[in-house]
C-alpha cells in the first residue's frame, strides 16, 4: 500500500507485531526483512508507516492505526506522544510497561552474557502513574514555547498546553517563561519529594533562575549538585539505587572503596557514612569539586576512569561503578578486577551495555550474585539496573 502525505509518497503496511525489542520497538517482518515498529504492543495487528528504509538489514516504522489491539493498550495521556521522542510507552498500561522492560532485560542478558534472569522491574516512590517525575528537562524553543525533539529527528515538537506530562510540575511554568526568550533551556528541580522544591533554569548557557548549586536529599543526608550537572532525574531514583548498592556491597568499618563515575559523590557519601574510606573518579571537574564538598573525608580525582584507574594501581574491598549509557568497557572492567574487590556494584542505565560489561567481568573472574532493575524512567523504554558481582567460587 502506498499513500501520499504532503505530496510525499509514504509506504504503509498492515503487519503483525512480534516480540518487544530493546529501544521500545516491537519486531515485525515485511517480506523477510525486520521492521522495528514504534507505538505498538506484541501480538497486535497494526498499520505501519515506514519511517526509515536506509539500512539493508532492517527498517523502522511508526504505528498509524491499530487494527487489533492488545488489552494492555491505553490512550496516551499526552496528545503529542506519537510524535515526540521523549516517551515510548504512553500507549501502554504502567504495570505492563514494567513487564515489557523485564522481557528486554532478560533477553539482553541471555543473548549477550548467557545469564538467565527472572527478576522483575521494580516501581519506585515518586510517580505511581508514570507522570510528573522528570526533574531535569532540556527544551528547544518553538514559537516562544517549550519544545522537544521528534523521535529520531532534529525537528522540534511543541509540548502540550500545561507542559510536558512527564516533566515535574514544579518546573513547567519556569520552562514556559524561559522559552519565551531563548533558543534552548535546561530546567532542573530538586527536593521534589518535599514541600519546598528548588528550581533552576539555564537558558542559552546562562543561569536565569535559581541557584548554580542545588540541594538533593537521600534519606537524611544532603548533597550539593550543579544546576546543569548530573543527578538522577526521577525523584525516587537516587534513594532506590543507593539502597540497592549499599545493601548489596555490605560495607564494613575500615573498608576501602572506589566510586567510579562518581558524579557529586552519591554512593561515596553513603559509604563514607558507614566508616568506609572512599576514593572517587569523575570526568567533570565541577562534579569533583562538589563531591569534595559533599564528602569531605573522601579523595576525588578529575579525569576519565579508563585513563586514571589503571595508573592508580589501587587495591579496594569494594567498587561502585555507574558508567554512562555505553557502559564501562574492557579497559575499565580489567582495571576494576585488578583491584581485587570482594564485591562490585555495577549501576547501569542500558541493558545491552550492562550485559556486555557483565560478560567482560565473567571473563575476568567476577559474576553477578544479584541483579535488580528499577522503573525510574516511566513511559520510556529505559530502565536502571544494579548488579552486585563477587569473585567466582
What's the structural domain tally?
3
Number of strands: 23
Mean pLDDT: 94
| Strand-pairing-aware structural class | alpha+beta
Binding site for S-adenosyl-L-methionine: 232, 261, 282, 322
Protein name: Class I SAM-dependent RNA methyltransferase
GO molecular function: methyltransferase activity
Active site: 349 (nucleophile)
Describe this structure in words.
The protein has three domains: 2-73, OB fold (Dihydrolipoamide Acetyltransferase, E2P), CATH 2.40.50.140; 96-127 and 234-391, Rossmann fold; 136-211, no CATH class. The strands form four sheets. The chain has an eight-stranded mixed sheet, sandwiched between helices. It has a seven-stranded mixed sheet with strand order 1-2-6-7-5-4-3. Residues 1-9 have low confidence and may be disordered. The protein is of the alpha+beta class and 393 residues long. The longest helix is centred in the first third of the chain and has 20 residues, at 94-113. The radius of gyration is 22 Å and the shape is globular. It contains eight helices and 23 strands. The protein starts with a strand and ends with a strand. α3 (237-249) crosses α4 (266-272). Residues 1-65 form the TRAM domain. This is Class I SAM-dependent RNA methyltransferase. Keywords: Methyltransferase, S-adenosyl-L-methionine, Transferase. The active site is at 349 (nucleophile).
Amino acid at each position: 500500500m502506498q499513500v501520499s502525505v504532503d505530496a510525499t509518497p509514504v509506504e504503509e503496511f498492515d503487519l503483525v507485531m512480534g516480540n518487544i525489542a530493546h529501544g521500545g520497538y516491537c519486531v515485525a517482518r515485511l517480506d523477510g526483512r525486520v521492521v522495528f515498529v514504534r507505538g505498538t504492543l506484541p501480538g497486535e495487528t497494526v498499520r505501519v508507516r515506514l519511517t526509515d528504509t536506509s539500512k539493508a538489514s532492517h527498517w523502522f516504522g511508526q504505528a498509524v492505526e491499530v487494527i487489533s489491539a492488545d488489552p494492555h493498550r491505553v490512550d496516551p495521556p499526552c496528545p503529542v506522544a506519537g510524535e515526540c521522542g521523549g516517551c515510548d510507552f504512553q500507549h501502554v498500561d504502567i504495570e505492563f510497561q514494567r513487564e515489557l522492560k523485564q522481557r528486554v532485560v532478560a533477553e539482553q542478558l541471555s543473548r549477550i552474557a548467557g545469564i538467565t534472569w527472572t527478576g522483575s522491574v521494580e516501581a519506585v516512590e515518586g510517580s505511581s502513574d508514570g507522570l510528573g517525575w522528570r526533574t531535569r528537562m532540556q527544551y528547544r524553543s518553538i514559537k516562544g514555547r517549550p519544545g522537544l525533539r521528534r523521535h529520531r529527528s532534529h525537528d522540534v515538537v511543541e509540548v502540550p498546553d500545561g507542559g510536558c506530562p512527564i516533566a515535574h510540575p514544579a518546573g513547567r511554568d519556569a520552562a514556559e517563561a524561559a522559552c519565551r526568550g531563548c533558543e534552548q533551556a535546561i530546567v532542573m528541580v530538586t527536593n521534589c519529594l518535599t514541600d519546598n522544591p528548588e528550581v533552576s533554569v539555564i537558558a542559552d548557557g546562562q543561569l536565569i533562575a535559581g541557584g548554580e548549586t542545588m540541594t538533593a536529599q537521600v534519606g537524611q543526608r544532603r548533597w550539593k549538585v550543579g544546576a546543569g550537572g548530573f543527578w538522577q532525574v526521577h525523584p525516587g531514583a537516587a534513594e532506590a539505587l543507593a539502597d540497592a548498592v549499599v545493601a548489596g556491597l555490605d560495607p564494613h568499618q575500615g573498608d576501602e572503596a572506589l566510586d567510579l563515575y562518581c558524579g557529586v559523590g552519591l554512593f561515596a557519601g553513603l559509604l563514607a557514612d558507614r566508616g568506609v574510606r572512599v576514593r572517587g573518579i569523575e570526568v567533570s571537574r565541577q562534579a569533583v569539586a562538589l563531591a569534595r564538598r559533599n564528602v569531605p573525608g573522601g579523595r576525588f580525582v578529575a579525569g576519565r576512569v579508563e585513563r586514571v584507574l589503571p595508573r592508580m594501581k589501587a587495591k579496594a574491598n569494594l567498587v561502585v561503578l555507574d558508567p554512562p549509557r555505553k557502559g564501562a568497557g574492557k579497559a575499565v572492567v580489567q582495571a576494576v578486577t585488578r583491584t581485587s574487590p570482594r564485591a562490585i556494584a555495577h549501576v547501569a542505565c542500558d541493558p545491552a551495555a550492562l550485559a556486555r560489561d557483565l560478560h567482560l567481568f565473567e571473563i575476568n573472574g567476577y559474576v553477578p550474585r544479584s541483579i535488580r532493575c528499577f522503573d525510574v524512567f516511566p513511559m520510556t523504554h529505559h530502565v536502571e539496573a544494579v548488579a552486585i558481582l563477587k569473585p567466582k567460587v
